[in-house]
Amino acid sequence: MRGLMKTARGFGNLELLELDDPIPKRDEVLIEVAAAGLCGTDIHIKHDQAFYTPPVVLGHEYSGTVVEVGSDVTSAQAGDSVVSPATAYCGKCHQCKTGHMNRCTAEDKRILGTSRANGAFARYLVVPDYIVHQVPKGVTMEEAALAEPMACVVHSVIDKTPICPGDVVVVQGPGTMGLMATQVAKAMGAGKVIVTGVTSDEWRFDIARRIGADLTIDVQGQESPIDIIKAETDGRGADAVIEASGACVACTQAFEFVKVAGHVTLLGVRGRPADIDLDPIVVKELTMSGTWGTLPSSWVTTLRLMSTHKVDVSPLITHRISLSEWEKGFELMESQKAIKVLFISFE
Ligand SMILES: [Zn+2]
Ligand SMILES: [Zn+2]
Fold first, then answer.
1. For residue 61, how far is its CA from the centre of ligand 2 (angstroms)?
2. Same structural domain for residues 98 and 185?
């Protein structure tokens, strides 16, 4: 099979290489990849701006069909449609034992497409059976390939953001995560979801409105975004703000958009220190959450939301290409012309 491998540290060093087909160990399943999504993390690895241990086949957002299972595997069988998180947690460290498997501290941890485990940008991959989830009926394999980012959003929005029915929620950044957060906030009963972005996001705003956003705001537009949000909330501000743009300035805006005693959730890292006035947290008595990755329960919830059509990720799939066109996929992401690029052929 051919796999897109990060061969060494440094910028680039990506090669589509001929590799041996993987063989499942006793507790592993061999999966034929149906669809695999390009993620910002893959771009960061290309640019040498993320944690990874080369050589490794990239790709951690995928769906696939089980083709073979190891002798100890009882939870999956050949023919099953499956997805899995990227990280194989140990179940033994303090974080795992206290329910924070997303922050497992085991040093030999396997992370698909990043460290010690070849990922899904290849025809086959192997994963330990205990992290596999079955794809429910009614969810297509292309949709299931977006379960990984959706599970991250489910953890951020459902587990970590107190949203009550009727609430006004502001989502900053109409990228993959922000658009998914919009859908999840709606599924939780938010009365109004307002998506903010910049002028160049106009085409993303169209998608945001199509998938349920009640209002979109260009923060670089003529009218002050704070005034618009105040007008939408009887002068009070949003009940919750979900920061999904990664921009440092958006944190400052989040403190302005949110109401007194409201909540701000940071979805994703900034990657650099920010010079931010923290006094609004004190003066407005705000609460805040940071969130990282997924818990096993995030996957159960995600797949239920997908199968009951409480969320619809299909409008977020803007490009479908073959793995042989990987350079085009990276270019689409780097030039911000895509929401989600899927590899759907691995010849
Ligand atoms: Zn990802
Ligand atoms: Zn652990």
1. 21
2. no
